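User: Can you help me understand a structure? I only have the sequence.
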Amino acid sequence: KSAAAGQSFDFFTVWILGGGGIGFLFVLPIEVASIATVAFVIEHFVSIQRDKLVPPEIVVELETLLDEEQYEEAINLCDATKNYITNIVGAAIARVGEGYDAMISAAEGATDEQNLKLQHKISWLPLLGNIGPLMGLFGTVPGMVMAFPQIAPATGAPSPQDLALGIFTALVTTVWGLLVAMPATFFAFIFKVRVQKLSFELSGVAMEIVERFKPVADGGAK
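Assistant: Let's start by predicting it. Here is the structure, written out as tokens:
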């Protein structure tokens, strides 16, 4: 009688331990990936918001300083408070003495950098969505390999219990892989759209702030 024949396949054994034995080694990486997916989703919902990326009070303070032509103080504020807007405006103000075109060039370069950072921030979810099924398949194939020797002619007619461990490993890892891939892919799309919208909106706000320098920069402001 095989060891699998006397094994109890309760919820914990099936879904957490992958059927027990070697199955846990295939399920564990997928479980870690599922935890990472949940963590990324929660973090992105909290941090990828306009008020988090650009606190309104910082924008008001920055605009006030610029209206009062306190450029040095504005640069200090941008250096002390790093966010999407201040990084762009700070890069532009630092080149105010070089003229408006230089300021715009610096702002555009900083905008590209900030947008790239946001894209990189959400890049882990698509990765998890892509490798989830592969990790599930990595457990599925060995699970089926474990089951096939039980039905070899030399072993006689196998009982369902003889096949249970291998089949459980194969099916559970497949399900786990899908449980990682589907939410990760869905939320990756959600955050991609959100990042695109915020990038367009916030870059517009930053460029509007920089554009108020046009008459000052053209006049050779110091």
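Now, to help you interpret it: Confidence is low (pLDDT under 50) at residues 1-6, 216-222. The chain is about 75% helix and 0% strand. Let me know which part you'd like to focus on.
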